[in-house]
Known about the structure:
This protein is mainly α and 398 residues long.
Amino acid sequence: MGLLAPADAAFDPFDSYPATRLPRVHVQRLMQHFLSTIAFQYYPLDLNMESNPFVVAWWPLALADPALFHVSIQTASLDEELRAQRGFPISELLMADSVSLVRRKIADSSLAVQDETMNAVVTLAAIEHGKGNFEASQMHIDGVKRMVDVRGGISQVKRTSPLTARMVPWVSLLVTGSPQFPVQDDDGFGDGLSPITQWRLAPSTTGFDTGPFSDAAIDHDVAHILSRLRYIFEPLEQPRLTNADLHDLTCFAVHKLLLLPETPSGGGAGESSRPAVSECLRYAMVLYMLVLHGTTYYSHVHLVMAVVQQLQKQIEALAESPHLHGPLGIWAVSVGMASAADMDDACAWFMEQGRFLARELDLVTWDDVLMQLQSVLWSEGNEPLFRRQWIRLFDTIP
């Protein structure tokens, strides 16, 4: 992709930028790499140079903010050095300067909680996590959480910078493996992550008295989330989600699912845990949304691996349950196959479960499987990967 001038840019991005300790030609190359490659790696939901938020919103801020600028070109340098496999001398220099510049900003109360500062800190968290420096990454996440608190919550941050409000909770979730921010209620009240309009408009009733859910012991919390997702992905009910809608929906739904309490709402004193069928659906829905969403801002592979392990445990717990031997089981195993497509051992495990269910339910074509998936939760955006995995599976059945 060639480098084009960002829309609404009243500057030449290669003539005016904060001072660094690198030669000018090196800085300009890193700037070009950020604008032509990194911006689209971070936000593949928008491949248009004139609307990608890292080009039109992030980059102008970086050109006026030394800390954010250093962090930004550090991401470009790290990408170059990873490809070259000759160490990280430039990235380490930029990291030292980035941390120093961020500390100066944090020491100034008027600059400490700016959007630019939060963008820089959460990016440092992602960089440190990618290098395996998990303690340093957690330190940065703790810092950005305090900044959000000072600003009045993530919903207040969204008023000035939707990009910051999207990136901070998402990266925080991916590098820690658990939600770091609360969610608003279904009507949009509270200081946490907000539901999209389609979520707020979805019926509150579950409608699970027929079909694959009629005899399943799905608790109210999980059924409620599944019901709203089914409504949103029903093509006859809703217009197609925008890329921003999809990200906001995924972020909200994944946080909401992972924040569910250990004890189901309305559970009695003797009920200490959620039924296995509900837990199976809960973790499968997390993975389903992550597969549909894809990688944005930072790799979600660590989170996927952790949730895949939880899904495997729940499927094993349901081995003798009739709920596993029908649409719910086919859907959960299919989600596992798609999520673990790049994880050899886990993918093989889900494939084996799929072969067993295919024989038991007499599934011989992709269309047979698709009917089962559509009865639980389905979006056409996931079809290519799911279909590819099932065709692979059918090829292994004599």
